[in-house]
Design a protein that fits this description.
Pfam families: CBS. The protein has 164 residues and is of the alpha+beta class. It is built from six helices and five strands; from the N terminus they run ααββαβαββαα.
Length: 164
């Protein structure tokens, strides 16, 4: 019986120490995120993207994530569809977006990004407020302890051509 208890204790300690060594999204995410309101104009979204040299803006209502708008959304859903520049961003943004929590395991989120072919993922806190964005750049340049292969697998997964 004593041997079983010792083995169980070792398993618990091993599991706990593994959890302590896991890296969290909050360790490498970008925190200073420019975002936009659903009622802001398409023109304002384009101006912010130009000013900050970015290709995506989280759409937030009182810090709560309601969608994402990309430079591609502006080109395809706005310009090509003949939307007025003073139309609200809510008319062209993607309302259902993949997101992660700031304390999520980084390896699991990297796999989700690769599987869904996402270059950026908004990060929210327990109150569902936007607190950052995790990008491929963050993964490639800030992943502490990540092997070259882990980063390469994420980049490869995101870059693969999808066949519909």
């Amino acid at each position: 019986m004593r041997h079983v208890r010792c083995s169980t204790l070792k398993a618990i300690v091993h599991s706990y120490s593994r959890r302590l060594s896991m890296h969290r999204v909050q360790e490498i995410m970008s925190r200073d995120v420019v975002h936009i309101s659903p009622s802001d104009t398409i023109r304002h979204a384009a101006e912010l993207m130009d000013q900050y040299d970015i290709g995506v803006l989280p759409v937030c209502e009182s810090r709560k994530l309601t969608g994402m708008v990309t430079d591609r959304d502006l080109a395809v859903r706005a310009l090509a569809a003949g939307k007025e520049l003073d139309s609200p961003v809510s008319e062209v943004c993607t309302p259902q977006v993949e997101w992660c929590m700031e304390d999520d395991d980084l390896d699991a989120v990297q796999k989700r990004m690769a599987d869904a072919q996402l270059r950026r993922m908004p990060v929210i806190n327990r109150q569902k407020e936007l607190v950052g964005v995790l990008s491929l750049g963050d993964v490639a340049t800030r992943s502490v302890g990540a092997s070259h292969d882990e980063v390469a697998n994420t980049l490869e997964g995101v870059s693969q051509t999808r066949h519909h």
